[in-house]
Amino acid sequence: MATSRKPRGTTVERVVDELRERIQRGEFAAGQRLIETDLTTELNVSRGPLREAFGRLAAEGLVTMEPNRGALVRRLTRRDIEELYDVRRVLEGEAAAVAARRIDEGDHRARLEAALEENARFRETVDLTSYLEHNEEFHNLIMRIAGNELLTDLVGRFRRQALGIQLRNLVTAASSKARVSVSDSVDEHEQVAKAILAGDAELAERLMREHVRHTGASLAETQKP
Questions:
Q1: Per residue in 130-160, is it b (16+ CB within 10 Å) or e — as a string?
Q2: Angle at alpha carbon of residue 124, lines to 128 and 144, rounded to 5°
Q3: Pair 141, 176 in one domain
Q4: Are 213 and 119 part of one and the same domain?
Q5: Which of 73, 88, 121 is the last residue of a domain?
Q6: How far is the C-alpha of 19 from the C-alpha of 21, rounded, in Å?
Q7: Residue 26 sits in a domain of what CATH number?
Q8: Residues in domain HTH gntR-type (predicted)?
Q9: Do 161 and 213 have their domain in common?
Q10: Where is pLDDT greater, at 203 or 134?
Q11: pLDDT in the model for residue 175
Q12: Are residues 216 and 144 in the same domain?
């Protein structure tokens, strides 16, 4: 009797998702080697799917592949962060402008208004994990309103590369410093959202660019040149 076999692609995707999340949570330190023998046991996979997962993570910029060492968690320098956010600033600024032009299509306005209400609650608390989830969803929503799937994919890849650093910086910051960082971001989100809701494409683009520039500069300061 023939038995069904789990598609290889499904296994690879599961491993990619697991490793990506652990890298972004900081469970693997920057520069840390990902040891195949340990991970095949932990993830219950063979070397083939694991190596394919490493390749996908390398394509996303989360790991690097080195001869005789294998996969290592990518260590972002200050220059890397600056370049990532230079690109994000342009892409997300354009997305905000397009979103402003499309805000009255479908349910875009209602969804952004709901996100704006959700944004306001982070003025009163520093639940860092929830805030980072909200931050990602806020930016993703603007991408979805803009309606460009390629743009959404590109920005998502750039954002994932720096997410682990952003999380570690917030978690290790003193409580008052973390609250200021979150508060600044909340204010900037509100300004961007209001510009989009007003249909002001030029202002939305400028404010989003400034928001991304500010975030990138804060992260770059924490990294070695």
A1: ebbebbeebbebbbebbebeebbeebeebbb
A2: 60
A3: yes
A4: yes
A5: 73
A6: 5
A7: 1.10.10.10
A8: 9-76
A9: yes
A10: 203
A11: 44
A12: yes
Bridge partners of residue 33, in order along the sequence? 72
The CA distance from 52 to 201, in Å, is 42
Question: Domains in the chain: how many in total?
Answer: 2
Q: What are phi and psi of 139, to 5 degrees?
A: -65, -40
How far apart are alpha carbons 195 and 137 in whole angstroms? 18
- Tokens 């790991």 belong to residue: 63
Q: Tell me the pLDDT of the chain averaged across its residues.
A: 85
Are 136 and 179 in a shared domain?
yes
Same domain, 88 and 67: no
In this predicted structure, what is the pLDDT of residue 168? 56
Location of structure tokens 């750039």? 158
Residue with tokens 């840390």: 32
Same domain, 117 and 199: yes
- CA distances to 16, 45, 53, 85, 107 from 42, in Å: 14, 8, 14, 34, 43
Place of tokens 């997300």: 92
Residue-number span of the structural domain to which 115 is assigned: 78-222
Q: Which of 187, 192, 190, 185 is nearest to 99 (CA)?
A: 192
pLDDT over 90 percentage in the chain: 51
